[in-house]
Amino acid sequence: MAKSKVVLVSYTPDLERVCASAMRSCYSQYGSSELYLSRNLLSDADVKRMLEKALQLGHYDIIEHGSLTYSLEDVSRVLTHQLVRHRIASFSQQSQRYVKMVGEKDWYARPPSIDEKEKVIIDLKGHKMELGYDDLMALSKQAYKAYSEKGLHKEDVRFITPSACKTNITITTNPREFRHIFSQRCDSTAQWEIRDVCWAMLSMAKLIAPTIFRAFDLPASRDSSAVGMMVKLDGMLSEYRIAFEKAEKGTLLEINLSELNLSHKVSSYVLKA
Question: Catalytic: 185?
Answer without folding.
Answer: yes
